[in-house]
Design brief:
Elements lengths: L2 E6 L6 E4 L11 E4 L2 E4 H13 L9 E10 L10 E5 L3 E10 L6 E12 L5 E15 L4 E9 L6 E12 L2 E6 L9 E5 L2
Antiparallel strand pairs: 1-6, 1-13, 2-5, 2-12, 3-4, 5-7, 7-10, 8-9, 8-11, 11-12, 11-13
Length: 192
Protein backbone atom coordinates (compact mmCIF):
# COMPACT_ATOMS: atom_id res chain seq x y z
CA UNK A 1 0.00 0.00 0.00
CA UNK A 2 1.40 3.38 -0.95
CA UNK A 3 1.50 6.18 1.58
CA UNK A 4 2.49 9.81 1.60
CA UNK A 5 3.69 11.69 4.62
CA UNK A 6 2.97 15.36 4.80
CA UNK A 7 4.62 17.74 7.20
CA UNK A 8 4.17 21.39 7.96
CA UNK A 9 6.90 23.50 9.46
CA UNK A 10 6.28 26.92 10.90
CA UNK A 11 9.58 28.68 11.51
CA UNK A 12 8.47 32.27 12.02
CA UNK A 13 5.62 34.58 11.13
CA UNK A 14 6.49 36.86 8.27
CA UNK A 15 5.22 38.92 5.43
CA UNK A 16 4.21 37.28 2.20
CA UNK A 17 6.05 38.71 -0.75
CA UNK A 18 5.03 39.00 -4.37
CA UNK A 19 7.44 36.91 -6.41
CA UNK A 20 10.82 38.60 -6.81
CA UNK A 21 14.26 37.76 -8.24
CA UNK A 22 17.42 37.55 -6.12
CA UNK A 23 20.72 35.79 -6.86
CA UNK A 24 23.43 34.15 -4.73
CA UNK A 25 26.69 32.58 -5.90
CA UNK A 26 28.69 30.84 -3.13
CA UNK A 27 27.74 27.28 -2.15
CA UNK A 28 28.96 27.18 1.44
CA UNK A 29 27.76 30.52 2.83
CA UNK A 30 24.57 31.84 4.29
CA UNK A 31 22.74 34.26 2.03
CA UNK A 32 20.01 36.77 2.69
CA UNK A 33 17.06 36.78 0.32
CA UNK A 34 14.10 39.04 0.95
CA UNK A 35 15.36 39.73 4.46
CA UNK A 36 15.72 36.06 5.40
CA UNK A 37 18.99 34.18 6.04
CA UNK A 38 19.18 30.77 4.38
CA UNK A 39 21.76 28.29 3.18
CA UNK A 40 22.80 28.31 -0.45
CA UNK A 41 20.85 25.09 -1.03
CA UNK A 42 17.71 26.68 0.43
CA UNK A 43 18.28 29.83 -1.63
CA UNK A 44 18.65 27.84 -4.86
CA UNK A 45 15.50 25.84 -4.13
CA UNK A 46 13.62 29.03 -3.24
CA UNK A 47 14.65 30.74 -6.46
CA UNK A 48 13.82 27.65 -8.54
CA UNK A 49 10.40 27.54 -6.89
CA UNK A 50 9.80 31.19 -7.67
CA UNK A 51 10.76 30.67 -11.30
CA UNK A 52 8.36 27.73 -11.52
CA UNK A 53 5.59 29.90 -10.07
CA UNK A 54 5.56 32.34 -12.95
CA UNK A 55 8.96 33.96 -13.33
CA UNK A 56 10.63 36.78 -11.54
CA UNK A 57 9.72 40.43 -11.46
CA UNK A 58 12.39 43.09 -11.65
CA UNK A 59 11.01 45.22 -8.83
CA UNK A 60 10.30 43.86 -5.41
CA UNK A 61 6.74 44.62 -4.41
CA UNK A 62 5.33 44.03 -0.96
CA UNK A 63 1.88 42.93 0.04
CA UNK A 64 1.68 43.27 3.78
CA UNK A 65 -0.12 40.03 4.65
CA UNK A 66 0.69 37.38 7.22
CA UNK A 67 -0.29 34.01 5.75
CA UNK A 68 -0.39 30.93 7.97
CA UNK A 69 -1.88 27.54 7.28
CA UNK A 70 -2.25 24.15 8.83
CA UNK A 71 -3.78 20.87 7.73
CA UNK A 72 -7.44 20.48 8.55
CA UNK A 73 -6.99 16.70 8.82
CA UNK A 74 -4.28 17.10 11.50
CA UNK A 75 -4.97 20.43 13.27
CA UNK A 76 -2.96 19.57 16.40
CA UNK A 77 0.01 17.94 14.69
CA UNK A 78 3.48 19.17 15.52
CA UNK A 79 4.19 21.28 12.47
CA UNK A 80 7.75 19.95 12.26
CA UNK A 81 6.69 16.28 12.09
CA UNK A 82 5.47 14.37 9.07
CA UNK A 83 1.82 13.48 8.68
CA UNK A 84 0.81 10.33 6.80
CA UNK A 85 -1.64 10.41 3.89
CA UNK A 86 -2.50 7.45 1.70
CA UNK A 87 -1.99 8.13 -2.00
CA UNK A 88 -5.26 9.49 -3.40
CA UNK A 89 -6.48 11.05 -0.15
CA UNK A 90 -7.24 14.74 0.13
CA UNK A 91 -5.32 17.25 2.24
CA UNK A 92 -7.06 20.49 3.17
CA UNK A 93 -4.95 23.59 3.74
CA UNK A 94 -6.70 25.75 6.31
CA UNK A 95 -5.43 29.32 5.73
CA UNK A 96 -5.52 32.24 8.15
CA UNK A 97 -4.65 35.52 6.43
CA UNK A 98 -4.09 38.74 8.37
CA UNK A 99 -3.80 42.14 6.66
CA UNK A 100 -0.95 43.86 8.50
CA UNK A 101 -1.22 47.01 6.38
CA UNK A 102 -2.49 50.10 8.19
CA UNK A 103 -3.96 51.70 5.06
CA UNK A 104 -4.50 49.22 2.21
CA UNK A 105 -7.45 46.88 1.75
CA UNK A 106 -6.66 43.60 -0.03
CA UNK A 107 -9.00 40.98 -1.46
CA UNK A 108 -8.22 37.28 -1.71
CA UNK A 109 -9.81 36.09 -4.97
CA UNK A 110 -8.27 32.67 -5.59
CA UNK A 111 -5.66 30.04 -4.76
CA UNK A 112 -3.33 27.90 -6.88
CA UNK A 113 0.23 26.66 -6.63
CA UNK A 114 2.66 23.93 -7.58
CA UNK A 115 4.08 20.66 -6.32
CA UNK A 116 7.86 20.47 -6.73
CA UNK A 117 10.19 17.51 -6.44
CA UNK A 118 12.29 17.85 -3.29
CA UNK A 119 15.36 16.47 -5.08
CA UNK A 120 15.59 18.82 -8.05
CA UNK A 121 12.78 21.36 -7.50
CA UNK A 122 11.19 20.24 -10.77
CA UNK A 123 7.50 21.06 -11.12
CA UNK A 124 5.70 17.70 -11.00
CA UNK A 125 2.11 18.92 -10.62
CA UNK A 126 0.10 22.11 -10.51
CA UNK A 127 -2.47 22.99 -7.90
CA UNK A 128 -5.38 23.94 -10.12
CA UNK A 129 -6.39 27.56 -9.84
CA UNK A 130 -9.51 27.80 -7.73
CA UNK A 131 -11.61 30.93 -7.66
CA UNK A 132 -13.18 31.60 -4.31
CA UNK A 133 -15.81 33.93 -2.95
CA UNK A 134 -13.85 37.15 -2.57
CA UNK A 135 -12.48 37.68 0.93
CA UNK A 136 -12.04 41.40 1.60
CA UNK A 137 -9.39 42.21 4.21
CA UNK A 138 -9.59 45.76 5.51
CA UNK A 139 -6.55 47.09 7.41
CA UNK A 140 -5.79 44.80 10.39
CA UNK A 141 -8.57 42.37 9.39
CA UNK A 142 -8.23 38.58 9.38
CA UNK A 143 -9.88 36.06 7.05
CA UNK A 144 -9.84 32.30 6.58
CA UNK A 145 -10.25 29.92 3.67
CA UNK A 146 -9.76 26.24 2.86
CA UNK A 147 -7.99 24.72 -0.15
CA UNK A 148 -8.37 21.00 -0.91
CA UNK A 149 -5.44 19.19 -2.51
CA UNK A 150 -5.76 15.67 -3.91
CA UNK A 151 -2.68 13.59 -3.09
CA UNK A 152 -2.60 11.87 -6.49
CA UNK A 153 1.19 11.66 -6.64
CA UNK A 154 3.59 8.79 -7.00
CA UNK A 155 5.63 7.95 -3.94
CA UNK A 156 8.38 10.50 -3.44
CA UNK A 157 9.40 13.67 -1.69
CA UNK A 158 7.68 16.92 -2.64
CA UNK A 159 7.25 20.55 -1.66
CA UNK A 160 3.77 22.01 -1.91
CA UNK A 161 3.94 25.72 -2.75
CA UNK A 162 0.48 27.27 -2.54
CA UNK A 163 -0.20 30.73 -3.93
CA UNK A 164 -2.87 33.20 -2.94
CA UNK A 165 -4.35 35.41 -5.64
CA UNK A 166 -4.61 38.85 -4.05
CA UNK A 167 -6.30 41.89 -5.54
CA UNK A 168 -4.28 45.02 -4.76
CA UNK A 169 -5.55 48.28 -6.29
CA UNK A 170 -7.58 46.36 -8.92
CA UNK A 171 -4.54 44.30 -9.98
CA UNK A 172 -4.44 40.59 -9.12
CA UNK A 173 -1.05 39.39 -7.84
CA UNK A 174 0.08 35.90 -6.93
CA UNK A 175 1.49 35.86 -3.40
CA UNK A 176 3.75 33.15 -1.98
CA UNK A 177 5.27 32.96 1.48
CA UNK A 178 9.01 32.32 1.58
CA UNK A 179 8.96 28.50 1.72
CA UNK A 180 12.02 28.23 3.98
CA UNK A 181 11.79 31.03 6.51
CA UNK A 182 8.27 32.35 6.74
CA UNK A 183 5.01 31.24 8.18
CA UNK A 184 4.30 28.24 6.03
CA UNK A 185 6.20 25.37 4.40
CA UNK A 186 4.70 22.07 3.38
CA UNK A 187 6.52 18.86 2.51
CA UNK A 188 5.01 15.64 1.18
CA UNK A 189 7.18 12.60 1.70
CA UNK A 190 6.56 8.95 0.86
CA UNK A 191 6.73 6.12 3.34
CA UNK A 192 10.04 4.25 2.91
Amino acid sequence: MKFLHIGLMTLMAGFSNVLAQEEANAEDVMVNIEGQDMTMEEAEAYMAAKEKMGGAQQQREMINLQVNYDLLEEPFADLQDFIVFEVGETATLNYTIHNLDQEETYSIVGVSGAVLSEVDQRNVANLTETNITEIVLAPNATGTLRHKIDMNLTEGRYYILPLLHVKDKNEVKRVMSNPFKSSSLVYIVSNI
